[in-house]
Amino acid sequence: MIDYLIEIKIEKFQNCLKSMFSAIPSFPHLPYESYYHSMIYMIMTLLGVKMDLEENTDQGRIDGVIEFDSIIYIIEFKLDKVQDAMKQIEDKKYYERYLKSNKKIILLGIGGFRDKNIEVLSEEIKSK
């Protein structure tokens, strides 16, 4: 999964998430965004990836930020529609504070947890 993020292979990253969550029996799934947010944080932590949570901006809080040597991922989670996650990142311009970094900035919306149809959308923002 780390390699997929570093290589920006989002579909492969999505497939890993789907596989992991599909292996969990239905009864422990909880209908809360924070549950899945925490699960993904734990997965990243166990893989050795530093993920910052609830990063404050002037427009709100970014659910998660993962920073590698040449890439920054701005992540928003939604229980339902992944499009809503991307819209929030874009509307609130969560990426602005990272524009000076000279790194690739990838917006990552992760959603569809409620119906167990996990989707990941991504968009690259050009830094200055």
Structure at a glance:
The chain is an alpha+beta fold and 128 residues long. The chain has helices at residues 2-6, 10-22, 33-46, 82-91, and strands at 51-56, 61-67, 71-77, 104-111, 119-125.
Can you give a write-up of this model?
- The chain has 128 residues and is an alpha+beta fold.
- The chain is built from 4 helices and 5 strands; from the N terminus they run αααβββαββ.
- It has helices spanning 2-6, 10-22, 33-46, 82-91; strands spanning 51-56, 61-67, 71-77, 104-111, 119-125.
- It is globular, with a radius of gyration of 14 Å.
Distance between the termini: 28 Å
Total DSSP E strands: 5
**What's the Cα radius of gyration?**
14 Å
Number of helical stretches of at least 4 residues: 4
For the biggest sheet, the summary is: 5 strands, mixed
Mean pLDDT: 90
Could you say which overall geometry the principal axes of the C-alpha atoms support? globular
Q: By helix and strand content, what is the structural category? A: alpha+beta
Strand content: 25-35%
Reading side by side through the largest sheet, how are the strands ordered? 1-2-3-4-5
The SSE string, one letter per element, is HHHEEEHEE
Helix content: 25-40%
Low-confidence stretches: none
Name a few traits of the molecule:
5-stranded mixed sheet
Topology:
Blueprint: H1 2-6, H2 10-22, H3 33-46, E1 51-56, E2 61-67, E3 71-77, H4 82-91, E4 104-111, E5 119-125
Parallel strand pairs: 3-4
Antiparallel strand pairs: 1-2, 2-3, 4-5
